[in-house]
Amino acid sequence: MKAQATKEVYGSNVDATMLREVIPKRTNMWWHYPALRTLNLLLICAIVTDVTNGYDGSMLNGLQIIQSWQEYFNKPTGSILGVISNGTRFGQVGSLFVSATLIQRFGRRRPIAIGSVILLVGVILQTAAVNTTMFVIGRVFIGFGNGIQATACPILVAELAYPTQRTQITGIMNSTGSLGSLLAATITFGTSYLGASTWSWRLPSLLQAMSSILQLIMSFYVPESPRWLVYNNRREEAWKILAKYHAEGDENSELLKFEMEEIDAAIAREKSQSLTSWMEWFRTPGNRHRFFIVLTIGFMIQWCGNALISYYLGILLKTIGITDQKSQLIINVGININGMVWGNFFSLWIERVGRRPMFFMGLTGMFCAFLVLTIVTGINQGEGFHNSSASQASLAMIFVFGAFYKMAGPVCPSYVAEVSPYDLRAKAFVINGFADAAANVFNGFTNPIGMVALGWKYYIVWCCVLLSNLLLVYFFFPETKGLSLEEVAIKFDKDQADDIIRSEPDQAETVDAPLEVGDEK
Predict the structure, then answer these.
(1) How many CB atoms neighbour CB 361 within 10 A?
(2) Does residue 239 surpass a pLDDT of 80?
(3) Who has the most CB within 10 Å: 326, 402, 449, 470?
(4) Cβ atoms of residues 18 and 270 within 8 Å
(5) Is residue 431 exposed (0-12), middle (13-18) or buried (19+ Cβ within 10 Å)?
(6) What is the C-alpha to C-alpha distance for residues 16 and 14, in angstroms, rounded to an integer?
(7) What secondary structure, in 3-state letters, does 132-186 show?
């Protein structure tokens, strides 16, 4: 049968129909099951990793609005401001050269701790900075540590979370950046009342350590990835972890046996074919397609105009006539509340709506918001920013853009994990992280210069980029909703799969999406 044929191609006996058969019938929601409840609480260690990233962008927005920071660092603009903003991005790029090795050698759990320690060193340097150089060096350390965390955490979630919750948890992990942004916006608003004291910017810098301290502590308690344990000949430990957290302690669970067979097959395939080289990405047309998606998602989600709002809100608000410091800080808080609410809301709909529709609706909404923002800001500037209706419309579009950005953003990490085979998954997140960091480095240098030189006309550039992103999704991004690993693979490796399938009787099997925890069969 076709399902059996695909199993032979990809070395696994896993498909969605079989997973449905072994998922235990549970009529209550997940928090009613002690082991699953404990697992999800422990996964907070990985889920909060994007808090640092979100905090950083919002903090920089707030600091640029605070007068004492501006005066202490001689009112940086242009390339100097770009270097300050990009400090964390430089560190993230550097981390990509070691992240895959750390994850492969030490697992997924220990690199989280390593990254947290490095990040905390950076926070100390940033907080104690006496000049621009020291401030930037601290930010480089923060980026380096966060880069290691951001590579290890989504892999740990993908390989450890309960099978029917992986997509939702990965989406929520991405949306925690909004929580970090909200914290930073609120903190900088509060510390702005400290006036000329340097603690008006040092305290927000110091509090950037909060999420990493939590991650460092919890990294000693969260379980290791069962897949990594099996790969390193520690199968018994993997069995115990899955038995405890996925099977509620039942070592005779069909789900437990099924998952172990899946892991054994995937690891055996990797070891037999020695798929450890980076050149594996270019060996087949399917892998080249995967590489293109993994790389472009990193650029696409950062090259859509979001960086203007994330790092240069103060400059952007000035282009629409809002110059008062307190008003800008209040708007910064509001924008981040907006992002946090929509990010978590849309994360829960990824599995129901699908990946392509979420991308399409998100990108279309962002384009429309940016187009309206461009038009009304141009009108307002032509009237000397005396058109209050145009200013209000521009501000509203910033909030609309933020909502639609959170529709597309949470899809990215789960989509990267789904399109990448197990043996290339760690490398996939390194590649994606490189694209993300490179896009942000470009944004950090280009946006402040573009905003000063072109004003509202600079928005036209991002309208064009958003249209190109829509075309990329339409032509190159397949849907993966409700598909088994084999079915996803067939979308990329059609020639190989078709050769095997044609040799089998033409008896297709119906594959259903896996049940959510709490659903009945």
Answers:
(1) 15
(2) yes
(3) 402
(4) no
(5) buried
(6) 7
(7) HHHHHHHHHHHHHHHHHHHHHHHHHHHHHCCHHHHHHHHHHHHHHHHHHHHHHHH
CB-based contact 137:27 (threshold 8 Å): no
Please, are residues 485 and 259 in contact by the beta-carbon 8 Å criterion? no
CA distance 155 to 159: 6
Q: How far apart are CA 126 and CA 138, in angstroms?
A: 4
For 157-180, what is each residue's pLDDT tens digit? Answer: 888 988 878 777 877 887 788 788
Q: Which CATH class is domain 33-224+274-481?
A: mainly alpha
What burial class does residue 27 get, using C-beta atoms within 10 Å of its C-beta: 0-12 exposed, 13-18 middle, 19+ buried?
Answer: exposed
Six token digits for residue 324: 């008062």
Report d(CA 378, CA 395) in Å as an integer: 13
3-state secondary structure (DSSP) of residue 187: helix
Per residue in 464-507, pLDDT tens? 999 999 999 999 998 887 665 556 766 777 655 444 333 333 33
Rounded to whole angstroms, how far apart are CA atoms 66 and 362? 32
Q: Is 366:466 a contact under the CB 8 Å cutoff?
A: yes
> CA-to-CA distance for 171 and 414, rounded, in angstroms?
7
